[in-house]
Amino acid sequence: MDISSLNWLAVIASAVMTFVVGGIWYGSLFGQTWMDEMGFTEEELKEANMVKIYGIAFVLELIMAINLAMFIGEASVSEGALYGFLTGFGWVALAMGVNALFSRSSFKLWFINSFYFVITFTLMGVILTAWR
């Protein structure tokens, strides 16, 4: 697939969606557990340069959306969901699992961090194929 044929609105929407899901995932669903597993306090999180973190994260998520769009091509919505899921689970979550094993992270932390990507890549696949 040629990058000029991408639906840029869908790519941007996919990147924005990751922030919406992340706000829920790392907020009300798993926020406190994630903080406990990472060893962070509220005060430490407030000291972070959030403009830098969110800005760079958005650029990285945008690149991920472009990458997935290039792989998906002209797939149907159900295929887009499947390819997104397989990307999130088969590559990202399992690669993060290997890192978690060697860094001796907890199963909880691996689940929280990796399944965020399983969900967001699945939704990216849907967005990228539904908006043609």
TrEMBL record:
Q: Which InterPro entries match?
A: DUF1761 (IPR013879)
Question: What keywords tag this UniProt record?
Answer: Membrane, Transmembrane, Transmembrane helix
**Keyword ATP-binding attached:** no
Q: Does the keyword Membrane apply?
A: yes
Q: Which residues cross the membrane?
A: 6-30, 51-70, 82-102, 109-131
**One Pfam family it belongs to:** DUF1761
Highest rank taxon of the organism: Bacteria
Instruction: Give the protein name, as stated in the record.
Output: DUF1761 domain-containing protein
Which organism is this protein's natural source?
Marinoscillum luteum
